[in-house]
Design goal:
The structure holds 2 protein chains of 2 kinds. By secondary structure, chain A is mainly β. Chain A has 1 helix and 19 strands. Chain A has one domain (31-413): Porin, CATH 2.40.160. The longest helix of chain B has 33 residues, at 92-124. Classes of the chains: A mainly beta, B mainly alpha. β2 of chain A pairs parallel with β3 (197-198) of chain B, so a sheet runs across the interface.
């Protein structure tokens, strides 16, 4: 009954969105944005509505899987000020996620913002600064068995040095990533108070990652470069009792760029290590990727990555295998067809809650530019998560699930 | 007919198309017709002939002529500024277009200045016929300069850029296109998981 009510509400929301899509576009001339200060800077406010069906939205008090609908309302803006001396790009939006039906108490405000500043991009010495903030119900952490709200702020600064014509580029980089967590639903999810079941403990998983790196890039052909990269990183948990303090490094060497007129790719190998307390893990690193670019407006990419990393909490560091694919094409200057897929398997070290985790995601979508100011998109996203739990870990639903999401969105841009 | 009636008659006269070539007075030809429509003073256009000019008092003629010459000077300066910007931008097409208008406008400005001076002399000598003719020359020149100013604006391509006259080319790259610097090829970021929300179970249903 509840499901039927939610479905009806969701269908009505989707029908409303569809009606908005099919409505005749007003010829008011929006889409050109607001020109700022007589310069090349242009501001585009926009409003996006998205209706999303989730086949596995919530596990009820009775332990039953329940589907649901979410209506996203996203007011936002983009600002672009291209310049050789100082280029600025900024985009931000708020995202009110209204859960429909019985799950309306899960409604939240999310958001996303990204600032990019580039100074002297054609000079011999430049500066690049990017800061990305994201508040979302999605997380990179695969050691949790329940949903959380993740707040991340990723700050990166790089100083590229391009003497001469820029054939040899030396780049110093530094970064600081902060991630905090909030439980979606408070309370203990299991009997006996196991730590992995206490949603309130999610807030103790907050951490900071600081990184420093050096990137050497020699373009021995105009669009092909030999690369040598090194990076040191350190994990600083906000609560030392809840998370491990980690540090590690990575070293890469290889080539990247165009291999032929329509074939690009990456071939890198390296070595990485992470120090735990106690212990350490070391592993080889590899990144092989090939991209076919038959047209300026179409590309097909597939790749493989073997890397190491660390999830917050006591799970410690992991090694991972990841395969990914990305195909996209712009058709008739209006239709963007895209397929994104990835599969990752992580094998955890250290104090284990999860011994291994797998995540498969496949998302085909299409976007249509109905008018200069109006775009619409639709797609389906399938994801499947499996886990190999350590002995004694409670099998929360978030450790193994699959879900299908279907979405329809409309964006009007001034 | 008093002055007010004469001016009203001039104002309500049909307005000729602005693009129509304004004839120059020649002996033995019918009275020439032109309009007054300074760019800086939008409003009703005025058809001007030497006969019509005779209805305007001399002092008013001198005042209107001086205003027209000033308007011509400002218009020529504005187009000259656009020409300089086109030269700095090295936009040959725009520069040639603007210069073609500017050359004629400067000639007309010279004609108008000379006619305005001759008008003042004629008024001083009480030579009404010469004053009317010179006044009509000033008005004709102002009309032509105004029209050419509009044609010079067309040289700029789009009227939206009239504020600064500079050519602005905007290229909006659709989202989702392949990246341009193909040597910067970092792998995609780590995948994101959106696990289902798990509500605390009823007492007898723990995991």
């Amino acid at each position: 009954m509840t499901m039927a009510k939610g479905a009806r509400t969701g269908l009505r929301a989707l029908a409303g969105l569809l009606a908005l899509v099919l409505a005749p576009a007003a010829d008011a001339g929006p889409g050109n944005g607001i020109r700022l200060g007589g310069s090349a800077a242009r501001l585009h406010p926009y409003l996006e509505l998205e209706g999303r069906y989730d086949s596995n939205l919530v596990f009820t008090e009775e332990g039953e899987q329940e589907a649901g609908f979410i209506l996203h309302v996203r007011p936002g803006l983009t600002l672009a000020s291209p310049s050789e001396r100082a280029a600025v790009d900024f985009r931000a939006h708020l995202d009110w996620a209204q859960y429909l039906g019985e799950s309306s108490d899960l409604s939240r405000l999310f958001g996303d913002a990204a600032l990019s500043v580039g100074l002297n991009r054609r000079g011999s010495l430049g500066l690049e600064l990017t800061d990305v903030f994201r508040r979302s119900s999605s997380t990179r952490n695969l050691t949790l068995g329940y949903a959380v709200v993740s707040n991340t702020n990723d700050l990166r600064v790089s100083v590229p040095f391009r003497p001469g014509g820029g054939a040899f580029v030396t780049t110093l980089t530094g970064g600081w990533r902060l991630e905090t967590f909030e439980p979606f639903v408070k309370g203990n999810l299991c009997e006996g108070g196991a730590p992995e079941c206490d949603a309130d403990q999610a807030a103790q998983l907050d951490y900071s990652d600081v990184t420093g790196g050096l990137d050497l890039r020699w373009k021995f052909l105009p669009k092909t470069a030999a690369v040598l990269q090194g990076e040191y990183w350190r994990r600083l948990p906000s609560d030392p009792d809840a998370g491990l303090e980690l540090s590690g490094y990575r070293g890469w060497a290889g080539v990247a760029g165009l291999f032929s007129a329509h074939l690009a790719g990456t071939l890198r190998g390296g070595y990485g290590s992470a120090s735990l307390s106690p212990g350490s893990i070391s592993t080889w690193l590899a990144n092989a990727e090939v991209e076919w670019i038959p047209l300026e407006t179409a590309s097909v990419k597939a790749g493989y990555l073997h890397d190491l990393g660390a999830d917050p909490g006591a799970a410690g560091a992991y090694t991972s295998h990841r395969g990914y694919a990305d195909a996209r094409a712009l058709l008739a200057a209006r239709y963007t067809v895209q397929l994104v897929a990835s599969y990752e398997r992580r094998a955890y070290q250290g104090v284990r809650v999860v011994e291994a985790a797998d995540l498969l995601t496949v998302t085909p979508s299409v976007d249509v530019e109905l008018a200069r100011w109006l775009t619409a998109g639709a797609g389906v996203s399938y994801s499947r998560r499996t886990s190999e739990l350590a002995a004694g870990t409670r099998p929360l639903p978030g450790y193994a699930y699959s879900k299908t999401e279907a979405f329809l969105r409309v964006r009007g841009t001034y | 007919m008093n002055l007010r009636h004469a001016l009203i008659g001039l104002l309500v006269a049909p307005v000729l198309t602005r693009g129509a070539p304004a004839a120059v007075a020649q002996p033995g030809t019918p009275p020439q017709v032109t309009t007054i429509a300074p760019a800086s003073r939008p409003g009703p256009a005025v058809r001007m002939t030497p006969d019509a000019a005779s209805q305007i008092p001399d002092a008013k003629k001198v005042q209107l002529a001086e205003e027209s010459v000033e308007t011509i000077r400002k218009t020529v300066d504005r187009v000259a500024g656009r020409s300089d910007e086109a030269r700095r931008e090295r936009d040959v097409g725009k520069l040639n277009c603007l210069n073609a208008q500017l050359t004629q406008m400067r000639g007309l400005a010279k004609v108008a200045t000379q006619a305005s001076e001759a008008l003042v002399d004629a008024v001083g000598k009480k030579d009404a016929a010469t004053a009317n003719t010179q006044f009509a020359r000033v008005v004709i020149a102002a009309d032509k300069v105004t029209r050419m100013s509009g044609e010079a604006d067309v040289c700029l391509g789009q009227l939206v850029f009239l504020m600064d006259g500079r050519t602005s080319v905007e290229v909006e790259q659709p989202q989702g296109l392949p990246g341009r610097d193909v040597t910067q090829r970092d792998p995609p970021p780590k995948p994101l998981a959106t696990p289902p929300v798990v509500r605390p179970l009823a007492a007898s249903r723990y995991y």
